[in-house]
Amino acid sequence: MKSLILFTSITLSLYFGGLNAQTNTKAVQENWTTYNSKAVYENGTIHLNHLRNDGEGSALLWLKESNFKDGSIELDIKGKDVRGQSFVGLAFHGLDNSHYDAVYFRPFNFKSPEKKDNAVQYIDSPDNGFYELRKKFPGKYENAVRPVPDPNDWFHVKIEITGKKVEVYLEGSNEPTLTVEKLNDRSQGMIGLWMDSMDGWFRNLTVKDR
After folding, report:
1. Which of 148, 158, 167 has the alpha carbon at shortest distance from 207?
2. How far apart are CA 93 and CA 161, in angstroms?
3. pLDDT of res. 10
4. Of 131 and 56, the one with more pLDDT
5. Strands 32-35 and 142-143
6. Options 2.60.120.560, 2.40.110.10, 3.40.50.300, 3.10.310.10; which CATH number does 2-209 get?
7. What is the pTM of this model?
8. Would you give the distance in Å from CA 77 to the centre of its chain?
9. What is the full DSSP assignment across the chain?
10. Measured between alpha carbons, how far is 118 from 130 in angstroms, rounded to an integer?
């Protein structure tokens, strides 16, 4: 098993199974590749800002040399309880800045009586965004979050990927808040922080490959 861990101290560690070897590197700019974004690293937190360049779509921060297939990804995420202004999540199986899977959250819908079922979303970029999926498969690729976090505070996310199966867990729960099948044949690729709003916060990234 290979594990990739981003500690609160902004230390990136790579473990290699039975060899029990470890490489520690500060998670500074050279460990990440930005796309349509600007990243600020401070006190164990990555603050990602969307540059809003025309035609470039979502903001991404790719973890260099990541090539994830099956396993689990965990991290803490924080957005804002501002309607239509906070879309924060994680990209995986990325081939480039356009082709990737992502799971993202709309914190402003976490506690909304009318919109709570649109709180967590899976997308397959670029072919199946939220609009296309909601139109073709209403309620299948998005859901309410359980348990319900404070929309203005940090919340813990765990994403399990096994083949085409994607399961999303929140706040240490044993019950997935979203379970979907991937809509493409990509079986591995890059991991990245994802955002489609002005800014978002990320910390404590842990990746475990099977």
Report:
1. 158
2. 10
3. 34
4. 131
5. unpaired
6. 2.60.120.560
7. 0.88
8. 8
9. -EEEEE-TTSEEEEEEGGGTEEEEEE--GGGEEEESEEEEEETTEEEEEE---TT--SEEEEETT--B-SEEEEEEEE----TTS--EEEEEEESSSSSEEEEEE-GGGTT-TTTGGGSEEEEEETTB-HHHHHHHSTTTSEE--SS---TTS-EEEEEEEETTEEEEEETT-SS-SEEEE-SS----BEEEEEESSSEEEEEEEEEEE-
10. 10
pLDDT at residue 55 tops 90: no
Tokens at residue 27, please? 């998670």
Q: Pick from 140, 72, 143: which is nearest to 105 by CA?
A: 143
Given this model, what pLDDT does residue 22 score? 23
What is the pLDDT of the chain when averaged over all its residues?
Answer: 88
Whether omega before 126 lies within 30 degrees of 0, making that bond cis, reads yes
The confidence band for 29, taking pLDDT boundaries of 50, 70 and 90, is confident
| pLDDT one-digit tens code per residue, 155-204 | 999 999 999 999 999 999 999 999 999 999 999 999 999 999 999 999 99
Position of tokens 């999303």?
168
Name the residue with tokens 């603050």. Answer: 47
Q: How many CB atoms lie within 10 A of CB 86?
A: 24
